[in-house]
Amino acid sequence: MKLREVAAILNAEVVCGHTKLERDVQAVFASDLMSDVLTIDSEKLLLLTGLVNIQTIRTSEMSDIKNIVLVRNKKASPEMIALAEENRIVIMQCSYSMYKASGLLFQNGINPVY
Amino acid sequence: MRFEYTIEAGNFSKAGDASSSFKKILKQLNVDPHIIKRIVVSLYEGEVNIVAHAKGGKVICDVDTSRVTIQLIDVGPGIPDIAKAMQAGYSTASAKVREMGFGAGMGLQNIKNNADELIIKSEVGVGTQLTIIVNLNKA
User: Fold this and answer.
1) What residue ranges define each of the domains in chain B, with the CATH number in brackets?
2) What percent of chain B is modeled with pLDDT above 90?
3) Most exposed of A25, B4, B100, B108 (fewest Cβ within 10 Å)?
C-alpha cells in the first residue's frame, strides 16, 4: 500500500515528506516503546506511535524506518520535523487511537510484523 | 580507523548523535546495510544507557576490514549485578528515561542480540565499559 493511501485511511495530516507519498508500506508496527521498535527488522515498515519526542525520530533513523504516523492527536515538534527531514522520514499525524489506526490498516490489508 | 564521541549525561535531545554520526561513516564506507543496522542499534542502545544512567562517557569506534569494535566507556554508578542487568525486563531507569520510550529492561539484551560479541566490565561507583564487536563479513 502507498503512503498516500495510508494517509487517506487514517485521515492523517502529512507533516513532512509530502513528496514521498508514493512509497510502499509492507508492514506496520505499533508501539510507544522504542526499545521494542529497535528489535524490529522489516523492510518498508510504518511505525504507529503515540510517543512524541526526538528519540522517536532517532530510533527510526537507527532502525531504517522511513514512515511514521503519530496517533492520539499527538503533534510533532519542530525539532522532530527537522531531524525527520534530514533523514528523509515521512511524519503523519492522525487523531485516531493506536487501536483504531492499527485496526483500519490491518482491515485494509497491511500485514503485521509478526 | 578510529572515531571518538563524547556522550553527555542526561541530555536526551543529543542522545543518538554519536550513533547517527557513525552510521553516516559506515554508509560512506559501503558497509552492508543490514550490518550497519546491527551496529547502530547496538551503539544507540549503549549511547542511551550512558545518557540515562551515567555521569557522562565516551564512545570509541574502531573500524578495520573485518570488524567494527565499539567501546562505550562511562563514569557512573556501575552495574552491581551484570547477570541481573542482562535479564529481560530488569531496569533501574528513571521515569524520565521511560518517558523517552526506553527503560523497559531490553537494552543490553538487544545489544547482545545484534552483536557478534559483547563484553561488559563494570565497577560499582566507578563506571561501566561495554565492548561490542560486529563482524563485517556476512557469513
Assistant:
1) 2-135 (3.30.565.10)
2) 76
3) B4
